[in-house]
């Protein structure tokens, strides 16, 4: 018996390089990570996109990305056209990796003709990576979780 047949990683062979490249490129078309969104928002000038928090008002009040637009998923069909510009890409987020609210919001926006990406990690990873956030009481920031962000470095090098 060969290692490839007994090894659970290689039991199914990796995709051909061209297929893998197409798959991973597609993932980047649909997703942005928290660090990249934060870096783009922190840079001077217009980042070229708007961030949309698709959670409830209570969740928004508990904490949200500074400058984000608040539009709960259920209200997207009736309000997106008034709050968003179809020529500007939208990056959606919800609570975190265990929540598909940002995916549902992205789908609703795409069906209305918006260019959209989903922010991987959502609000949970925004906070865990140590980025500033707003609550109904003002701005806050927590120390970065060393399991999600580098200690004493501004860039993970990804």
Can you characterise this structure?
The strands form two sheets. The chain has a five-stranded parallel β-sheet with strand order 1-5-4-2-3. The protein has a two-stranded antiparallel ribbon with strand order 6-7. It has helices spanning 3-6, 17-30, 34-42, 57-62, 76-83, 101-111, 122-128; strands spanning 31-33, 50-53, 69-70, 90-93, 116-120, 133-135, 138-140. The chain is globular and about 55 Å long. It is 37% helix and 15% strand. It is built from seven helices and seven strands, in the order ααβαβαβαβαβαββ. A hairpin with a 2-residue loop joins strand 6 (133-135) and strand 7. It is α/β, with parallel strands linked by helices and 158 residues long. The longest helix is centred in the N-terminal third of the chain and has 14 residues, at 17-30. The termini are far apart.
Quick rundown:
By secondary structure, the chain is α/β, with parallel strands linked by helices. Helices cover 37% and strands 15% of the residues.
Helix segment count?
Answer: 7
How many individual β-strands? 7
CA-atom Rg in angstroms: 18 Å
- Percentage beta strand: 15-25%
What's the quaternary structure here?
Answer: single chain
Helix proportion: 25-40%
Uncertain runs: none
Largest sheet: 5 strands, parallel
Question: What global shape is seen?
Answer: globular
Name the structural class. Answer: alpha/beta
- The SSE order reads HHEHEHEHEHEHEE
Strand order of the largest sheet: 1-5-4-2-3
Separation of termini?
37 Å
Quote the average pLDDT. 93
